[in-house]
Amino acid sequence: MTEGSILVTGGAGFIGSHYVRSAVTKGCEVVTLDALTYAGNLSNLDTVKDVSNHRTITGSIADRELVAQLLAELRPTTIVNFAAESHVDRSIDGPDAFIDSNIVGVFVLLEACREHLKCCKNADRFRFLHISTDEVYGSIEQGAATENDRYDPSSPYAASKAAADHLVRAWSCTYGVPVLITNCTNNYGPYQFPEKLIPLTISKALQGERLPLYGDGLQERDWLHVEDHCRALDAVLSNGKTGQTYNIASGETRSNRAVIEEICAILDRLSPRSDGNPYRTLIENVADRPGHDRRYALDGSKTRVEIGWTPEIAFTAGLTDTVHWYLENGHWIETSRQKYDGSRLGVIAQRG
Fold first, then answer.
1. Choosing from 34, 89, 134, 227, which is the catalytic residue?
2. With the C-alpha atoms ordered 126, 132, 138, 141, is the resulting torsion angle positive or negative?
3. Does the annotation count 134 as an active-site position?
């Protein structure tokens, strides 16, 4: 865990809120900046909203004046950038927001960091950690992408994240901004917004709705528990070399069909349907989405060897705990669903 104050952008979202809660619990001074778009939820931070070492500011990373003001006021030693539009289906329907947040927003942050470093007393300790995705490497037929492989994004979302990664590297090489980049695989766990595969499947299954599955459902993804991801980020901040990229993967690969079927089996045990039918009978194949990548895979050996991080949560155990959480927090998921565009709830997002 880093020392000094931390500015966490996108800290009211799924992964960001997990990181904020963990950092605050460990005693770090944390400021959360979040635009509170549809996927941002202040209730994700309820457990730390009244503690002295955390505060939340509503605003966008693309707001130059606000970002500059925050850095001048806070003088953070660390910025962890989770802020991003991240839903592939939404990027296909309307890419504008992805360009604004994922590219322009990152540019604004980097420029603010460049100015901040000119007068930062702890410039030697400053780190800008940019959270990216495995999707920048595109679909991989076999093997796994390393940090040195070329980018080949397929969706507007992936392209916007790839562009952001390039900006981060350029500001490191050209201006000396001390950056770190992490590319992670599909995250899952509590507090994930119900447009993503796992929480949406759970939500729709419990309501007896059909469980749409893109194409044949055999698209493969590596599934990483959000708590393992946050532990990896701490390790990268502590042990990573500035200017470097680190892949974060669990090695737990499943097809989208297998994930949905496993959720159905867990629900059969924990919350059987009143009609006695298994949940898997609700699965329904639908037309595939445009440009749907068949397989993502990351080689995480660099992170494991150089950083000393390994995942701790096996997928089946983590998924079971996740289903438990959603069963016990029905109000949270229902409130989140009400924020979501109902026209998109009929389509399962395969991003996860």
1. 134
2. positive
3. yes
Output the CA angle 257-258-259, nearest 5 degrees: 90
Q: Which of 234, 103, 233 is nearest to 168 (CA)?
A: 103
User: And the tokens for 155?
Assistant: 């969706």
Catalytic residue among 135, 147, 165, 293: 135
Q: Tens-of-pLDDT digits for all 352 residues of the chain?
A: 455 699 999 999 999 999 999 999 999 999 999 999 877 899 999 999 999 999 999 999 999 999 999 999 999 999 999 998 766 667 677 788 888 889 999 999 999 999 999 887 777 889 999 999 999 999 988 899 999 999 999 888 999 999 999 999 999 999 999 999 999 999 999 999 888 899 999 999 999 999 999 888 899 999 999 999 999 999 999 999 999 999 999 999 999 999 999 999 999 999 999 999 999 999 999 886 666 778 999 999 999 999 999 999 999 999 999 999 999 998 888 787 776 544 344 443 433 4
Q: Which domains does the chain have, with CATH numbers?
A: 6-188+223-248 (3.40.50.720), 197-220+254-293+314-344 (3.90.25.10)
What's the CA gap between 187 and 135, in Å, rounded? Answer: 13
Read off φ and ψ for residue 9, nearest 5 degrees.
Answer: -90, 140
For residue 80, which phi and psi values (nearest 5 degrees)?
-115, 115
Pairing of strands 179-184, 245-248: parallel
The neighbouring-strand residues paired with 78 are: 6, 127
C-alpha span between 50 and 46 (Å, rounded): 8
According to DSSP, residue 50 is labeled T
CA R_g for the chain? 20
- Let me know the angle formed at the C-alpha of 164 by 350 and 348, rounded to the nearest 5 degrees: 10
**Of the residues 29, 85, 89, 157, which is catalytic?**
157
296 given a catalytic annotation: no
What six digits make up the tokens of 289? 């989405």
pTM of the entire predicted model: 0.92
Alpha helices by DSSP H, the chain: 14-25, 64-74, 88-93, 96-98, 105-119, 156-175, 197-206, 226-239, 256-270, 301-302, 315-328, 330-339
Cα–Cα distance for residue pair 52/248, rounded to 1 Å = 32
157 is an active site residue: yes
